[in-house]
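Tutorial handout. Part one gives the primary structure; part two gives the three-dimensional structure as C-alpha cells.
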Amino acid sequence: MNILVLAHRIPFPPNKGEKIRTFHQIKYLHELGHQITVVCPFDDVKDPEYAKALQSRYCQQAHGEKLGSKYPRLLSGLLRGQALSVANFYQATLQTKVDALLQQNPDAVLCTASSMAAYIFNSSVYASLKKPPRLYMDFMDLDSDKWRQYAAKASGLKRWIFSREARLVGNFEKRIAEQFSACFFITETECQMFRQQNGDIGQIYAVENGLDTDAFHPPLQASNHDKPVFLFTGVMDYAPNIDAALWFVDNVWQSIRSRWPNAEFIIAGMNPSAKIQSFHQKDGVLVTGFVDDILPYYHQATIFVAPFRIARGVQNKILQAFACGLPVVTTPMGAEGIKCADGFSILIAESPQQFFAQIERLIVDAEHHRKITEQALHVIDSQYKWEALLDPMVNVLQGCHPTSKQS
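Part two.
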C-alpha cells in the first residue's frame, strides 16, 4: 500500500511527544512493507538533514518546505477567520508539493494533527482524482479541549485568543471527522469527549502510545543516591510543561528542601522559557535546556514528578519514567489514559500537601519505592509495546475497519 503521510513536523529524531508517535507509526508501516512518503513543513534549520535521515532508513521519500516567518501566516489566519494553529503550519509551496504527490495516486493519506487537513481541503487536485485516496487523521490529542483549558486559566486578550482558537479548532475537528475515512485519538477518554461535543459522526478510534524499551530502560547498575533527585522532562516552551514545572517549584519544592536540604530538581528539555531559566542553579534546581541524550537524567533521578494541570492525552514522559524504573507522582490529569493504578504502579496527588506526602513516603520507605517501581515496569512490559498497539490502526488504514466504533 502506498501511504502519503502529512506530518506537521518532521518526525525525526523522535525526541518529542508527537514526533515519537508519528515516527513509530512510519517505522512500523515501513517494516510491514508499505511504501511511505512523508511531507511536512520545516521550521528548524536542521529539518532537511533530519528528513534525509528519515528517508535513508524508514521511508521511500521525505519532503518538506521551509515555513519562514510565522507572523504573516498568523495574521493571514486571523484575517481569514482561521484557527491560528492551522494557519501556522500552512505553506503555499508545500501545498503545491502535496498536490503533485496526490496526483501519483497514493492509496491512503495519513495526517498527523488536525492542522495538516488544510492541505487536503485546500487541494486543487484531490476532488478531481478518479480514485481519491482514503483519508485518515491522527488527531493525537483533542486540541480544542486543550485550548479551552488555556482560556479558562487566562484573562484579557489571551483569553479571547484561546477561546477563539478552541471554537475554530473544534469546528475544524468536526469537519475532519465528517469527511475523513477514520480518525484516531490517543485515549478512549478523548474519543468519548469528542462524541459528547460533536455527536455520533465519523469513524473514531483510540490508538494508544507505546514505549520503545530499547531506548528507555532501567540503569544496568542501581544508583547509590546520597540525596533525593527529582526529575521533570519535556519541551519547556510548551504551556502545559511550563505550568507543571512552575507549580511544583512554587508549591512543593520549598517543603522538600526544608526536609532534605541537599535535594535536587532537574528540569530537562529543550527551549526553556525565561521563567523556567530563572530557576537555574537556585535552591537546588537545575535547568538543562536541550540534551543529546535524556536517558542519563532518568537514570540519576530518584522520583519523577508530573504535576500537570493542563493536559490531554497520554504523557509519554510518564511512560518513559516507568520504563526507566522511576516511581512517578502525578496529578489525575497526568495519569489520564495510562493503564496504571493509584498506589500500585503510580502515585496520584492534587494538592501540594498530597504531593509532599507521596514523595516523603517514597524517600523514607525503600520497600514502597521498590514495589511502585516494579509494578510500573510490569505495566510497560505488558501493555505498551508499540507493535501491538499499532496493529488496530494498521488494520483501519488497510480498510479493515472493526465491526463497531470505539466510543
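Part three, for discussion. The first strand starts at residue 2 and ends at 7. The chain has two domains: 2-210+386-397, 229-383.
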